[in-house]
Every structure is written in C-alpha cells, then in structure tokens.
Design brief:
This is VWA domain-containing protein. It comes from Billgrantia antri. The chain is an alpha+beta fold and 595 residues long. Helices cover 24% and strands 36% of the residues. It is built from 9 helices and 36 strands. α2 runs parallel beside α7 and α5 packs parallel to α6.
Length: 595
C-alpha cells in the first residue's frame, strides 16, 4: 500500500527510522498475538513515501533483515515479508548490542530515530562472563557511555516496553537522555497506540478534528487517510460521504484503498469529496483523519519534552507548498488554540493564540502533571478545520532520590536550563529548613538530620530559579523519606520513576459529599443536559447558523415568542442556581492531614 504523504511534504533533512524488535524467547509468552508484527505493519503503511526506514531483530544475536532504504513499493513488500522472522525466538536478550549496531549503521544527513520494542531486560549468555556482573556492566555501558554519545550524534531512541518484566527504568532513561518517547504497555492491545505515538513524533502530519464522529474535508485536498481503531467484537466501521453515499471495506470509494487488520482499518481516499463526512461504527480513542494538502499548519519553538511548572512559548502559521501564507490569504475568521492533553485526552492547559499578521503566538500555561501527553494546535475558520498533534513527555524540572545509607537527599536538574548558577534548592523537615549544596553542575545534595527509620516522614521541597534577571519559585510536593515503611507520619503518593521520585503539583483539598446528589435522579439528568447545552452550541454553531439564522430572526420578531423564550431562559437559570446552592450546602470539605 502506498502512502499519500510524499517526500516533498517532509523537511529537507528527512528523519530515518530504524526499528529494533526483540525476538528473545520471552516474546513467545508476552506477545502471543504477535502484535510486534502488527506494529511493523502499521509503520509500513504510515511511513511517508521517500522517507528511509530499516528493521533490526535481536535476541542473543543481532540481525538486520531489512537495511534502511526509501519507503517505496518494493521496500513495503519486503517489510511485510518479515513476519516469519519475528517468531524466530532466541534464548537471550542483548539490548546494548542491538542499539549499538542499529545506531552505527550507515550514517545519514538527517536525524536518526531508533524505535526499540522489548519485553525484557538485558540477559547475556553465560559464555560472555559471570552473571549477573556481565548484565550489570552492559546496562551501565548503555546508560553511561552509549546513550550520551547517541544524544550528541542526534540519534533519538524511542522505547516501548510491553511486559511487567521489562526494565522500564532502562528504557525511560534511554529515551529521556536522547529526547525520545517511552511507553510502558500494560496490555498487548496498547502496543499499537504507543507505537503510533512514536510514528506521529517522527512524521507529524496535518489532521482534521473529529467531532461527534463527523469531520470536515475542505476543497482542494489531495487525499485523506482514516486510521480507525476498534476493539474485539465491535462493528466494522463505515464512511458516509457528504452526498450520503456509504463506503466500507467491501465497497470502498473510487480509487481508494481500504486495508482491514485485526484491530484497525486503514482507509486512504484520494481526491475526496469536499464537505462533512461521517464515521459509522465506534472508532477508538486513537482513531484519526490525516490529510495531504498544499496548505499545511506549521509550528516553531515547541520542545520535544515539557516540564512541570514551566510554560511553553508557541508560534504557529500556515504554509502553502513550503512558502508562508500571508495574512490576507488565510481562511476567513481563523482562530487558533494550543492545548496540552494528558493520556486520557483531558486538557491540562490551553491558550488562544494571538494573530500577529500571518503568525499566531502565545504562551501555553505550565503543565501540572507528568507522563505521556499530546501537544495540540487546533485551527478553525469558515469552512475550515485543521489540527496538528505532537506526542510529548511531561517531566519534573527537578528529580530527587533518598539516599538512606548516606543520610541525604540527592537532587538533579531535569530541565536543561537549570544548573547550580541559577537554581537554589531547599527543604523543610519537621519545621527545620534544610539547604541543598551543589555537588556538580546540575546536581545537589541535601544532608538530613538523624531520623527514625521506622517512620515514613514527609520532606517539603522548594526551589528558586533566576532567568533573565527574574527570580521565580519552584513548588515541589513532598517527598516521603523511608517510604517503604508501613508507619507514616503523613501519606503522599511518591511513586518512583527513572530510579528517582517524580514531583507533581499538590492537589487542592478534596470536597466530598456525604450523601451524593441532593436532587432526585430525574432532575439531576435534566440539569446535566442543560449544563451541556453551552458546550454543544459552541461546537456546532458554525454548522447550525446558516440553517437557524432566518427562522430564529422571524420568531424573535413576534412579541409573544420573545416573551416565551425569555421566560424559559429565566427558569433554566433559576434551576441551575438552585442545584448549585443545594450541592454547596450538602458538600463537606475534607483536607488531607499535614504535619
């Protein structure tokens, strides 16, 4: 299958993708459905024509069954023929050699992206030395020598670990130091989602947003690609064109290719009919509509990694065939927004961008929670919808580790602009202030007093950062000392990541209701629907306006109808105010205890 993205739509320095697939023996158990094969098939379908990609496999030995080459029809056929090699299982797992050999293959002018799919940890054969010493040495060499060198050479490592037995600390640290994405996959089905996020990072493309299973195709598009995920037993998806024609895998649109896999459908439609299309069925959360258009949405200055507590400058514009579009040629009534969405799709922070001639600029408020996220720029105008998505990681600006033997807390700067010259860190422990002393360019040590190791104790951490002559305060939640102890003075969720405690913003006090809703269920349902009306009207107004404008104008010209509508609106407002008042009276505040 071809891809409607072409080499002309990519940057001059095209990225090269090198997929590294684990074929160790444990894969037989952890990937019984051979989802690694489906992930490779997804790459084959989505990699733009002309971009370069290759495939490596590893267990005890490293092989390169598909050397990097341009993604043409011949390359795609060879890639699909690799499925039998992915079940040729081997006994051991040599991750270091696999990454080294894939990274050391033919050098290219553009960036190299290594995509590691593994379910285990480094496990070398006995003939190479005594265990576990050889495994530990290989791991340290990968993190302390090879990883930093790859970062200097502009080699990005993305990693997916789809087993509880995988060394998540290893893959997360390797991805972080090279600017890549990492994802633990709790269930095999989630592998495709994680792999797709990495493909999106390497080959970003314009999308059209899908609202209520509808999407708008503007005139002049060269084509669109619909990637529709589905679960087991769910009905097969269909497409309904603006003229009402229905299409499926058995009867695709003229000239289209409709490929059906076990967990998704991939539909490529050239020269699509302009207007509003509709999806039938129940497409999954990660489904999307990507487009190929001479008019593309561009961004600048957006980092690969976001940091908790730091806002992000955003600049966006439109380009036509590589040339910036002047303000007069933009779609009318154009409005751009930028959002950061967490893994569930909920919006963490958002900003409306201000137009400055042909550019749109703003600052995205700082994220408050870490983890995998999506940065989204959305454009809406008259008869125009466009969306640009960049998967990203959100990390803490400072990480910490309790060194129990050394009676200290070790702190390290994760944000690239923080160092000993512009950052001061301190803590508060049982009323006493503790200072952190620099022990390196981007590391600090905080000495602890004598403590009872039988108690879990909260340490409040704070910081001051100076940028461009302006000092700002870093608010870091509490770190639990001796967190493995059952008896605790206070309780805070401080789950470790990358062998350190990740800091997140403290949550506001939780307000709970003693008896749930204060109203009968039917009334609650009515109020819920009423409260949703403003959101629905905002989302659909551009579609409703041409139809409703004339009848509404005629209706409001009659005094009786104006009186009835005014009375109805007043009653709805009173109902909402009454519900809020009753809920407030029934709510009982609860705040977590503090030291």
């Amino acid at each position: 299958m071809s891809s409607y993205l072409s080499a002309a739509s990519l940057d001059e320095e095209q990225p090269e993708v090198r997929v590294i697939i684990d074929v160790s023996g444990s894969m037989r158990h952890n990937d019984p459905d051979q989802l690694a094969t489906e992930a490779l098939e997804l790459l084959v379908a989505l990699v733009p024509s002309g971009a370069r990609a290759g495939v490596w496999t590893f267990g005890e030995r490293v092989a390169n069954p598909l050397p990097p080459g341009p993604a043409n029809l011949e390359w795609r056929d060879r890639a699909r023929a690799l499925s039998s090699l992915l079940v040729d299982y081997q006994q051991y797992t040599d991750i270091e050699s696999a990454i080294f050999q894939a990274a050391s293959a033919e050098e290219v002018a553009g960036p190299r992206h290594l995509v590691l799919l593994t379910d285990g940890r480094i496990d070398l054969p006995d003939w190479r030395g005594s265990k576990p010493a050889i495994d530990t040495a290989s791991r340290e060499a990968l993190l302390e020598e090879l990883g930093p060198r790859l970062a200097e050479e502009n080699v990005v490592v993305h990693a997916i670990a789809f087993s509880d037995e995988a060394d998540m600390d290893l893959v997360e640290r390797l991805a972080q130091m090279t600017g890549g994405l990492s994802a633990p996959v709790a269930a095999p089905d989630a592998l495709l989602t994680a792999f797709l996020a990495i493909v999106d990072r390497i080959f970003p493309s314009d999308r059209v947003p899908v609202t209520d299973q509808r999407f708008l195709i503007e005139p002049g598009l060269r084509g669109f690609t619909a990637l529709l995920f589905r679960g087991e037993g769910e009905e097969m998806p269909e497409l309904v064109a603006p003229d009402g024609r229905r299409y499926s895998a058995d009867s695709p649109p003229d000239g289209a290719e409709w490929r059906r896999e076990s967990r998704y459908d991939l539909v490529q439609v050239p020269d699509p009919q302009a207007g509003q299309w509709r999806l039938e069925g129940a497409p999954g959360q990660d489904s999307r509509i990507t487009i190929e258009s001479p008019l593309s949405l561009q961004t600048a200055g957006v980092p690969d990694t976001f940091y908790i507590g730091f806002d992000v400058p955003v600049e966006a514009w439109f380009a036509r065939d590589g040339e910036a579009v002047v303000a007069e040629a933009l779609p009318p009534h154009l409005r751009l927004t930028a959002e950061l969405r967490d893994a569930s799709g909920a919006v963490q922070s958002a900003v409306t961008l201000s137009q400055q001639e042909s550019r749109f600029v703003g600052r995205l408020p700082a994220p408050a929670l870490g983890g995998n996220a999506q940065f989204v720029v959305r454009a809406e105008g008259q008869g125009f919808r466009r969306q640009w998505v960049q998967p990203t990681n959100v990390l803490p600006a400072i990480s910490a580790q309790h060194d129990e033997d050394g009676q200290r807390v070790l702190l390290a700067a994760e944000h690239p602009q923080l160092d000993r010259d512009n950052t001061r860190l301190f803590g508060q422990l049982q009323g006493a202030r503790l200072e952190a002393e620099p022990v390196g360019e981007r590391r600090w040590s905080m000495t602890l007093p004598e403590l009872d190791a039988a108690l879990s104790i909260p340490l409040i951490l704070r910081g001051e950062v100076t940028f461009d002559g302006e000092t700002r305060e870093l608010h870091l939640p509490r770190l639990m000392l001796f967190s493995s102890v059952d008896t605790a003075i206070d309780q805070v969720d401080a789950s470790p990541a990358l062998e350190v405690a990740r800091f997140h913003e403290e949550l506001a006090p939780v307000r709970e209701s003693r008896t749930g809703s204060a109203l009968p269920e039917p009334v609650e349902r009515v109020v819920s629907h009423v409260q949703e009306l403003p959101r629905i009207v905002r989302e659909r107004w551009r579609e409703w306006r041409p139809v409703l404008a004339e009848p509404l104008e005629k209706t409001l010209s009659e005094p009786l109808w104006r009186w009835l509508l005014g009375t109805l609106l007043a009653a709805l407002v009173l109902l909402i105010l009454l519900v809020k008042l009753l809920r407030r009276r029934r709510a009982v505040p609860r705040e977590e205890p503090h030291v």
